[in-house]
Design a protein that fits this description.
261 residues; alpha/beta; D-Maltodextrin-Binding Protein, domain 2; 5-stranded mixed β-sheet; 3-stranded antiparallel β-sheet; 9 helices; 43% helix; signal; Solute-binding_3/MltF_N; SBP_3_CS
């Protein structure tokens, strides 16, 4: 009787371990079985994810497609507003989020990330006739347009800014141009792309955050999916090795950013 009980106990533990392993593999297996990886993205954050005449495009979108190709599946994008993107991952609307999601300790407590696929400092942007804001410290008591849950919004708050909530970069710029806010703290690469598209816009980046505030972004996943995370990391390494990443980054930024990751 004692032997039988112990045997059953050991068998039960082994069965639970097997079920746990199967669960850990299930998301990657499900993606391959479906033939597609569903990717949450914003669609309004140039040059990373936006629409042109061809449809949804951008640096993050092409990185997502390249990852999917390495996985042997199609990329299916599900668009949503920034402040709801991570909630969509919780609700299983998609498998991952690729939308310049900054890797932070707070997010890592609840989610997993791939290796960083791009890093960019925060830029402090104001109107070119603003004489009061020259450094991040000058944000104290000023109004900054930012998405509430972004790293950039938190950075502005850390310097004492009052956050005026927006849905994305374009709305931040519109509020700044119409003088409804004093500044926006945003991605340097996004601002440089904006200036490339609209060189006469009366906006200027007066400061860039130092290395401590470098915004490194990764593919966001639900916790406890090591096989999917490892497969994505392997895909990222592959597209850097075969020149795909270089081609994409040169297309959007005019430079190979792979060495900085």
């Amino acid at each position: 009787m004692k032997f039988s009980f112990r045997t059953l106990l050991v068998a039960g533990v082994m069965q639970l371990a097997a079920l746990g392993a199967a669960h850990a593999q299930s998301e990657l297996d499900a993606i391959k079985k479906a033939g597609a990886i569903k990717i949450g993205t914003e669609g309004t954050y140039a040059p990373f994810t936006f629409h042109d005449a061809s449809g949804l495009t951008g640096f993050d979108v092409e990185i997502g497609r390249a990852i999917a190709k390495q996985l042997g599946v199609k990329a299916e994008f599900v668009e949503g507003k920034w402040d709801g993107l991570i909630a969509g991952l919780d609700a299983r609307r998609y498998d991952v989020v690729i939308n310049q999601v900054g890797i932070t300790e707070a997010r890592q407590a609840k989610y997993d990330f791939s290796d960083p696929y791009i890093s960019s400092p925060a830029a402090l942007v104001v109107r070119n006739d603003n004489k009061d804001i020259k450094t991040f410290a000058d944000l104290k008591g000023k109004r900054s347009a930012n998405t509430l849950t972004s790293n950039f919004g938190k950075l502005a708050q850390s310097y004492g800014a009052e956050i005026v909530p927006v849905q994305g970069f374009n709305e931040s710029v519109d509020l700044l141009l119409s003088r409804r806010v004093d500044a926006t703290v945003n991605d340097k690469l996004s601002f440089l792309d904006f200036k490339k598209q609209k060189p006469n816009a009366p906006l200027v980046a007066v400061a860039f955050a130092d290395g401590r505030d470098l915004n490194s972004s990764g593919v966001l996943l639900r916790k406890n999916n090591p096989e999917l995370r490892d497969a994505i990391n392997k895909a990222l390494s592959a597209i850097k090795a075969d020149g795909t990443y270089k081609k994409i980054s040169e297309k959007y930024f005019g430079a190979d950013l792979s060495a900085a990751q």
